[in-house]
Every structure is written in C-alpha cells, then in structure tokens.
Design goal:
Strand content of chain A: 25-35%
Structural class of chain A: alpha/beta
Largest sheet of chain B: 7 strands, antiparallel
CATH topology of the largest domain in chain A: Rossmann fold
Number of strands of chain B: 9
GO molecular function, one term (chain A): glycosyltransferase activity
Domain Glycosyl transferase family (chain A): 305-453
Largest interface: A-B, 48 and 53 residues
Largest sheet of chain A: 7 strands, parallel
Protein name (chain A): Glycosyl transferase group 1 protein
Number of domains of chain B: 1
CATH architecture of the largest domain in chain A: 3-Layer(aba) Sandwich
CATH class of chain B: Mainly Beta
Organism (chain A): Arthrobacter crystallopoietes BAB-32
Strand content of chain B: over 45%
Number of domains of chain A: 4
Strand order of the largest sheet of chain B: 1-2-5-4-3-6-7
Oligomer: heterodimer
InterPro entries (chain A): Glyco_trans_1 (IPR001296)
CATH class of the largest domain in chain A: Alpha Beta
Number of helices of chain A: 15
Number of helices of chain B: 0
Distance between the termini of chain A: 49 Å
Radius of gyration of chain B: 16 Å
Helix content of chain A: 10-25%
Chain lengths: 616, 140
C-alpha cells in the first residue's frame, strides 16, 4: 500500500495562500467542501488562506455567513470575489492597462436583465443579443448605484465581433483601466491579491484552471488539484480519452508549478501513460478521523453501511446484488444506505423485486451520515470509478472496515487487503459477498481490522495532509525558476522511414517559443511512444537529438523490428505512435500525423518478397 | 541526379539478366510527399554503371513511370538513392503498383523487382482514418 507519508510536520512556507474556485454554489459538493476545509486547515497550521471566486454573484456575504454557521468555513478563512472586490475598491488607485474608446455596438440587443444584491441595490444589468444567450454587455454597479465595471462585446450590424472590452470606471464615471479578455482582468486581480509577496494559488475548480494557468509572476506559484479521474468516465487509463473538464489542463500541463493527484494510483497510471515531469505531486484529501476508536461493542452485528449519492457512478445495484447473495447464507446481515439521488426509485424497485426490503434500506439524505460508520460492522463500496472516495476515508476514520471494489481511484491507496479492510476485484459480486460474510462471522477479524482502519487513517488527518501540502508547496516554490514557460510547443515531422529489416523510424523538429525559464533546448528531450490498442502501458523509446538551438530541437529515432514487438501481446494488432516531449515541468504528448497527403502511395512487402506500393 | 523525368512506356522484357542487384535498405516518406528509396548495388567485376532508375508499374495497366536514381561514386557497393514524388504518380484506376530497379550497364539494361522480405516485416506504418501514424501487424 502506498501513501504512508510520515506525519512529521514541516511548517507551511511563509507565503500568501489562495484556494481557487470558480464560485461557491448554494448546494455544493465534495470538491468545494475540500477546498473550504483546506483553507481552514491551513489556518490551523498558522497560515490563513483566502478562497478566491470569479462568478458574478451578489451574495457572497450571506454565503460566507451561512458556511461559517454550518462549520464549513473556518473563521479565519476569507472568501473574496473579483466582482465584490472591485465593487468596493477605490477604482482610481487600481492601475491597470490604459483604456481606449470602446467601438460603437451596432448589433441588436434586448432589454436588460437586472440582478439585485441582498440589500435591494442593483448589482448588474445584462443585455443579451436576440438569440437570448449571447451577452452584448454587462454593467456592474456599486451599492450607491454608480457604475464600476462595463463588460462590453460590441458587434457590427452584420453580427461580426469588434472584440471584448472590460472597463473599470471610477466614482466620477471616468474610465480608468481596461482589459480585452476576462481572463486578463481576473489575473490582474489575482496578482493584486498577491501584492508582490510570495503566493500560492491552489486551484480546485477545473473550470477556473483556464483563468489561472496563464498567470505568470515571479512571486506566484500555481497548483492544480485533480479531483476526479483524468480519464473520461473513469475509463481505461491507457486507452480512454482525457476527461473533457481536464483536457486543457493536461494538454498545457507545463503551465502549472504543480499538478496535484489525490492518490498514488492515479499518478502512477498517469505517468505510465504520459510520462513524468517535475511538477507532478500527490496530496491526499484530508478526512479527520474520530478522536478515539469507537467501541466495538456498539457495533451492530451484521450491519453494513454505505454513504453515497444514488447515481450511476456509485453502482449501488451491485451492492444490492452483494446483499442478495449474502442474504442467502446469512439472512440476519443488513445494509443501510444513506444518501439520495436520481436512481432512488429504481433502486427501491430492485430491492423490492429481490425481496430485500428488510435487508437493504434506503434512508435518503441524512445529516452527519458518516456517524453511521461508528455503529456498523462493515461498509461497502461498489463504485465504478472515483477520484478519492471520501466515504471510504470516513469509514476508516471511524474504525469501520470497508469491503471495496478495487477501482480507479482510491481504494488501493487506503486499504491494505486483509489488514484494514478487504479489496475485491471490481464488479466481482461473489467476492464482495464472501468477504462480507467473513467479516460478519469473525468478531476477532472485524475488531482487528477496525482498529487497523482507525489507526492508519491518521495519515488523512488535517495535520498529516497539511504536512504533505507543505512539502509540495516548498518543492514547487524551490523549482519555480526552472519552470519552462513555452508557447506553441509542437512537433513537425520531416520524414518517416521503413527499413528493409522491418524497423521504422522518423525525423523531425520540436519547435516552441519561450517566455521564461532556462534555455529549453538544453532541457527538453523526447521519446517515441508506442501505444497499444489492446491496452496496457505504452512503450517509450528515447529519440536522438541531432541538432538544437533556441526554439528548436531536431530529433531522429529508429526502432528495430524487435523494439516494436517488445512486450506487445499477440492479440494486439495495431500500435499508435506518439511523440512525448519532456524536461523539467514539460510533459506533452503529440500524436504524429502520417506524412504527405492522403490518400497516397505507401510501400509494403509482398508475399513474394518484393516491394509494392499501395494507395492508402 | 537530374530532376525526376517522367516517362511512360509499355513494359518490355522483365527477364533480363541483372548486372547489379539492388539491395534495399530504407524507404522514407517525407512531409513533402516524396518516397525516397535507398540501398546499395554491387556491380559485377568490370561492370560499369551508366544509368539507374526506379520504375513504378501499375499492376492493372502496366503503365510505367520512371524515376532516375543517383548513386555514389567510388568503392563498391554503390549507394543508390531514388526519389519518387508520390503525388506525381499517374496511376489512374490503380491501387497497387510494383517497384523495379533498372540499371543500364555498359552492355545492356538490367531490371528486377526491388526485394523486400516480408518475413522481416511484422509491423508496417499506415495512416489511420484521421491521418495519424499507426503500425499494423502484417499477419493480421
């Protein structure tokens, strides 16, 4: 089992800390919970943190108050919002790019939609185009009714854009600063928040990542937390497409001082497919455990607990199937499921159909549902995929040994099979049922595993996780001057070749323009990557650097027939060729295009040992 | 080598005795869409290379397109290179074509298929439907 970092406690480096969300929804989920919690944990460790948001929401004061009352936001953790900030800032002292005259808007627009703040003052007016969705202009107002920001997107009468203009207005109505992209406006504000001091922006929202990624200041580091699988739908780690929400993050991973995985397993999968770089880190989510190990005597024999949303990802039908099998041999064993979701009725029908109404019970949303783990004999996790299942950590932290499918990602990072719970192969209902029976039959086993679960969950304590963050931030900060900031990094294939001996190779140039960092031509290297269609990790072959200069690396590679075939399963008949560029923070995979136009003539060896050409 | 001159004529005698076998080494496809064949030729003692070329012959029509080759001077084996601009191949209605090496020695023309042992070729590059480079197992 991995992830057994010691709980030595290096202090968080002395710098300003920001947790970045796009916004805080009224009914937020695990990602926002973790971000807010981290801000509090940093404060507990002596470094107060500020939560940064960008959504044009007029009610953050009320939101913040509510979160503090609910205990979800620490007293010393501030929540700031770009629109709230400039609503009350002295616009005359802001600075920023000098404004120009905004071109006349010749496009059609409708009546404004007005948003009021909680005090009843106008917060914003939004003008839409006739399509009802395109924003023509949005005006923002101070509490006294004066305008402080205009976000305008003028058009010609033909609907052709004249650009975008975000103009800051002072109290006298004079334009004082202007940005041509919303991202530039947000980044100006973020740099202003850092105020020239060392600062770390920890980004939880993948939506906000596009705002933060281009922020380049010598006093700022940026870390992106990957809360979910990087693979769409939690699919095959070597074949699946990148998750849509994370695609831009990974395609431009060099923009980050840190890409932070929650589990070692996910990082291992990522590195096996894409390679490694200096800006990859692993930091678990925190999940404080019970102050003391709950008394085993209070655990109800044969009672299992699940805490999860009733959605497809959680795969609750499998848990019901597990219990159906258990019920045949141990009719006294039950499962209580806490949580709600769109599948509740469907799941209840399945329970009823199997005659398990008194065996599997859906309790719906229950406050403090995690407390149920303190009186349960076991917990079940049958999810299809996860980022890092918090319910699993809650179960461990309350001394309730889990029986979990070994899915990507989470269970194998926290469960040592047979020690603090059971790992069974994903989708293996029979194995999960057998382990459930074993756990319910054997008091000593259940007690021993529960103790181990609680003891080992110490590494998810706030203190332990903050220590992981401290090491990560310190590492990222120390290597920030080695970070290459490159634009338009790409590969230009010059030729592909086939050898008579059955090998192949290629030659071409890696090109880029450099913004900062040490000379990239002295740092970058490349591998030819052979991906296997039938699955499994790809093979990496170093390319030879045959020439280099500013913005240019000339490469060649030749693979023999044995190289190509090495480790390829017999049932794998197709291989996909990529180029991987790496060095320091750079990690980029490029699909190589077949040279020349298509269709065109390609050489091949005939059955009679002759060269022919085929039009492909 | 002179620029590729394109000629078309009916294939004549394929049974001519070779005076120098072309040993294929590498086939390159450039981004500009050129196929470059390289290999060696060992001329018989006293042989004298006058000219050499690669000839692409459409399988159905037997239409030939000739591409002059260039070769190294000096010690044997001679290194031979032929450049075939693939977009210039005029093989309408064809999807398959054979490749020959033709050398004109001091006494006669010698022509033979370019030899490429399929036993050695287990994986062959091909463009996917999206135009990307992949390898396909030859036996599949």
């Amino acid at each position: 089992m991995s992830g057994t970092d010691s709980v030595a406690r290096p202090l968080l480096p002395a710098m300003k800390y920001f947790m970045v969300l796009w916004g805080i929804a009224d009914n937020f989920g695990g990602m926002t919970t973790m971000s807010l919690h981290r801000a509090g944990a940093f404060g507990e460790a002596g470094r107060s943190a500020t939560v940064v948001t960008f959504d044009p929401k007029p009610s953050y004061e009320a939101t913040t108050k509510r979160l503090r009352v609910q205990g979800k936001l620490a007293e010393d953790a501030k929540v700031v919002n770009v629109f709230q900030h400039y609503r009350t800032a002295d616009a005359g002292s802001v600075g920023g790019p000098a404004p120009v005259k905004v071109p006349e808007d010749e496009g059609e627009r409708g009546l404004p939609g007005v948003v009021l703040d909680p005090a009843g003052s106008i917060f914003s007016r939004t003008f839409l185009r006739p399509d009802g969705t395109t924003v023509a202009a949005r005006h923002f107002y101070r509490p006294d009714g004066s305008e402080y920001l205009r976000d305008e997107a003028p058009q010609t009468t033909a609907g052709i854009s004249k650009g975008r203009f975000l103009t800051l207005v002072d109290e006298s109505g004079a334009d004082v600063a202007q940005w041509r992209r919303a991202g530039d406006f947000y980044r100006f504000w973020m740099a202003d928040l850092a105020a020239g001091q060392p600062a770390a922006f920890i980004v939880d929202s993948s939506f906000a990542s596009s705002v933060v990624a281009p922020l380049e200041r010598p006093n700022i580091i940026k870390l992106m937390v990957l809360h979910n699988s990087h693979i769409s739908g939690g699919g095959n780690p070597f074949l699946g497409k990148l998750a849509a929400g994370q695609r831009r993050i990974h395609e431009n991973s060099l923009a980050w001082d840190g890409l932070v995985f929650l589990t070692h397993k996910q990082r291992q999968d990522y590195e096996a497919r894409f390679g490694t770089s200096s800006n990859l880190f692993t930091v678990s989510n925190p999940k404080p455990r019970a102050a003391a190990l709950p008394d085993f005597a209070y655990r109800v024999p044969g009672r299992g607990v699940m805490v999860c949303r009733l959605e497809a990802q959680k795969n609750v039908p499998h848990a019901i199937d597990v219990m159906a099998r258990v019920h045949q041999e141990r009719p006294e064993v039950t499962l209580d499921i806490y949580g709600t979701g769109s599948l509740r009725e469907e799941l209840q029908e399945k329970i009823d159909l199997l005659g398990l109404r008194n065996v599997v019970r859906l309790h719906g949303h229950t406050p403090n549902a995690a407390d149920q783990f303190e009186t349960a004999r076991f917990s079940l996790l049958t999810s299809r995929n996860e980022g890092q299942p918090l319910s699993l950590m809650e179960s461990l932290g309350r001394g309730c040994p889990p029986i979990a499918y070994d899915i990507r990602y989470g269970p194998s990072d926290v469960i040592e099979d047979g020690v603090n719970g059971f790992l069974v192969p994903a989708q293996d209902v029979g194995a999960a049922a057998a382990r459930t029976i074993q756990m319910c039959d054997d008091d000593d086993l259940a007690r021993r595993m529960g103790e181990a679960a609680w003891e080992r969950s110490e590494r998810f304590s706030d203190e332990a996780v903050v220590a992981q963050w401290a090491r990560t931030i310190e590492g990222a900060w120390n290597q920030r001057t080695d970070r290459l900031v490159l634009n338009d990094l790409d590969f230009r294939l010059s030729e592909l070749f086939y050898t008579a001996a059955g090998g192949f190779g290629l030659a071409g140039d890696v090109v880029w323009s450099q913004q900062s960092g040490p000379p990239a031509e002295n740092v970058l290297k490349a591998n030819l990557v052979v991906g296997r269609r039938s699955g499994g990790a790809p093979a990496f072959y170093p390319m030879e650097i045959v020439g280099k200069g500013p913005g240019l690396l000339s490469l060649e590679a030749e693979m023999t027939a044995d190289d190509i075939a090495n480790g390829v399963p017999d049932d794998n008949n197709e291989l996909d060729i990529f180029l991987q560029i790496h060095g320091n923070n750079v990690l980029k995979s490029v699909r190589i295009g077949f040279p020349g136009k298509s269709p065109s003539w390609k050489p091949f060896a005939t059955a009679h040992a002759a060269m022919s050409l085929k039009l492909v | 080598m002179s620029g590729a001159t394109l000629m078309a004529y009916r294939e004549k005698d394929l049974g001519i005795r070779m005076s120098g076998d072309f040993e294929f080494a590498k086939a390159r496809i450039t981004a500009a869409g050129e196929l470059i064949l390289t290999g060696t030729v060992c001329l018989p003692e006293g042989g004298n290379a006058v000219s050499a070329s690669f000839v692409v012959v459409g399988r159905k029509t037997q239409i030939e397109t000739i591409f002059p080759a260039e070769w190294s001077e000096g010690r044997q084996p001679l290194e031979v290179t032929g450049r075939i601009p693939l977009q210039a191949l005029e093989l309408e209605g064809e999807t398959l074509a054979n490749v020959y090496f033709v050398s004109d020695g001091s006494d006669r023309e010698n022509r033979a298929r370019v030899v490429w042992d399929p036993e050695a070729v287990h994986w062959l590059p091909y463009p996917t439907k999206f135009g990307n480079l992949s390898l396909k197992r030859m036996e599949s």
